[in-house]
Amino acid sequence: MDDVAVPSLDDPGTDPFDVAARAARVIAERTGVEHHDLALVLGSGWGEAADRIGEVVAEIPSHEIPGFSAPAVAGHGATTRSIRLAGSDRHALVLGSRTHLYEGKGVRRVVHGVRTAAATGARTLVLTNGCGGLNPDWAPGTAVLIQDHLNLTATSPLEGATFVDMTDLYSQRLRDLAHTVDPTLPEGVYAQFRGPQYETPAEVRMAGVLGADLVGMSTTLEAIAARHVGLDVLGVSLVTNAAAGISPEPLSHEEVIEAGRTAAPRISALLAEIVGRI
């Protein structure tokens, strides 16, 4: 690890890409892996996938890597792992300790993992989440490929006059590849709200009018940052509950965790097979 102090992401004078580069160097030193080929962010319900995609080479408490902190939400991993993909000499970086915008730590921290992944050499990013579904045909436990998104957070990870095309943000090539594993996978538009409160029924109806099929509190800012640094993005949502107003049942975080736990073996096997073909 560098002997000099790492600049804080909270300091507006800090270059966040410099912190990401330092983080990548620490990961290389701690794992012995100089280059990672792809990265995964495993949201609620997706954690078991890391155990299925290959051999864990090294595991690092995320807060020991520059710019990262321990997770604030139950159900999210607290470690970053380097995994040698099954049957190959390629490596995946599984990013633990996802930071959400509602934690109040700033958008730089939300996307720091993505920028660090790019700095380790990754060219592909798999983003997963647990979310609310607007389509009543998608029961809890349904995996949905993200086709596009609505960023309803009123912020962006891009700073200054940084103009980036978002036309094919969620790679058609990667979605086609996912369909070779499971042709029945539905696709939908994901809308991110700031949170941490769940969406009201009126907000869900608004999102539906705007074209959303899924609502949640993560993913879009990370995807934007990923496109900026040239990563190909595959987004996959797990419907953990019907969004507010779609079902008469009240929403709870415990419901989200339980739905993820129930679906974990099936969706983790699915994701592992998709990753194996990337």
UniProtKB/TrEMBL annotation:
Organism listed in the record: Actinotalea lenta
Pfam families per record: PNP_UDP_1
TM segment ranges: none
Protein's UniProt keywords contain Transferase: yes
Protein name according to UniProt: Purine nucleoside phosphorylase
Signal peptide from the UniProt entry: none
PANTHER family recorded: METHYLTHIOADENOSINE/PURINE NUCLEOSIDE PHOSPHORYLASE, PURINE NUCLEOSIDE PHOSPHORYLASE-RELATED
Enzyme Commission number, as recorded: 2.4.2.1
Protein family membership: Belongs to the PNP/MTAP phosphorylase family.
Reactions mediated catalytically: a purine 2'-deoxy-D-ribonucleoside + phosphate = a purine nucleobase + 2-deoxy-alpha-D-ribose 1-phosphate
Subunit and interaction comment: Homotrimer.
Coiled coil residues, start to end: none
InterPro entries per UniProt: Nucleoside_phosphorylase_d, Nucleoside_phosphorylase_sf, PUNP, Purine_phosphorylase, Purine_phosphorylase-2_CS
Source organism superkingdom: Bacteria
Gene Ontology molecular function: any one: purine-nucleoside phosphorylase activity
